[in-house]
Amino acid sequence: MSGTSAIVQDDAELAARLADAAGKILLQVRESGLIGGKALGKAGDVTANQFLICALREQRAEDGLLSEESKDTEERLAKSRVWIIDPVDGTREYGEERTDWAVHIALTVDGIPTIGAVALPGLDLVLRSDQPAPLPPEGSPLRMVVSRTRPAAEAVAVAEAIGAELVPMGSAGAKAMAVIRGEADIYLHSGGQFEWDSCAPVAVAQAYGLHCSRIDGSPLIYNQADTYMPDLLICRKEHADLVLEKVKQATQLA
């Protein structure tokens, strides 16, 4: 066996392989049965992050890198190409042995999410920006996916205003992919997130033809000095104007 790793030339293929491999590692850690709960979540975060950081340094040494589980530096801000990753999105769900958690791998170019892969290891799925498929039929009534533990007030208000059903779910990646997979029609979040929570899901969702923006309609720009990104809207394009209007109304009434 060669001791030299082969460089994956295609960025989308690399993102998908990284997401898939990290997901399999995480499942192995969980299936060991040696730890559980919060300790399992911490072990998963550390283990997957170490693999992803080493692999990206090997495969794309010249690119910038931002990970939830690594100390951030200003070095990435001078880079055009920056990988933004979340080794375990939904650590709580992972530790509770649920399926609504994800692995996020994204490549931004000049702040724009260009390539993305989101693994749903519990479902044995990897959704990727270079392999979009037609969206399933929308729900009737509409369905809005929200946090299963702390649904955002704006999301609840908008759902009531448009007659949408609430679908509780875990990680941000799982929620965004639920819209792609036909389990929901709208993902509205206003409770505070960071760039790694949404970058890969947005890259994939945009490739599938979904609307992606801040909840005031402004674009999502990544690789910023401040990685806090408090709100997000991912939905079918035909619902975007209505949802944005209702968000504005709900915000004014708050």
TrEMBL record:
Keywords tagged on the record: Magnesium, Metal-binding
Top-level taxon of origin: Bacteria
Cofactor(s) needed by this chain: Mg(2+)
Residues holding Mg(2+): E68, D86, D89, D197
Pfam families per UniProt: Inositol_P
InterPro entries attached to this UniProt entry: CysQ/Inositol_MonoPase, Inositol_monophosphatase-like
Annotated SUPFAM superfamilies: Carbohydrate phosphatase
Any one GO molecular-function label of the UniProt entry: 3'(2'),5'-bisphosphate nucleotidase activity
Annotated TM spans: none
GO terms, biological process: 3'-phosphoadenosine 5'-phosphosulfate metabolic process; sulfate assimilation
Protein name: Putative phosphatase
